[in-house]
Amino acid sequence: MYEWIKALHIIAVISWMAGMLYLPRLFVYHCEAEIGSKQSETFKVMERRLLKLIINPAMIVTWLAGIYLAWAGHWYLSGWLHLKILFVLVLSGVHGFFVRRVRGFAGDRNAYSQKFYRIFNEVPTILMIGIVTLVVVKPF
Length: 140
Description:
It contains five helices and no strands. It is an all-alpha fold and 140 residues long.
């Protein structure tokens, strides 16, 4: 059962990260769209569907499967896992920030620039690099 849950965890992580990397790119383009335009309304639908149908479920499955793997594999006492969990908590915070941004765009209340979203788009990537490195190398 452990290997099946691990496969599910990896699939969920890939799905979560795909969404976390794509959503801020949508924000960049949404910034260019005039409020009330057909393009703006299309971005709202795309952002909402990406969040509700892919990113949110993938995050939930990632967390549930990860908790199972940590417990069943007796990894919960490992230092590398503690740091990984910290990184995943930060990534979950970024996820929450993206949820608020989707709501902001939905209400035509975007508070950030294209440049902000372009830069912030790198945060999930940096966290992913750290998380994958910890899991594969297990440095401590």
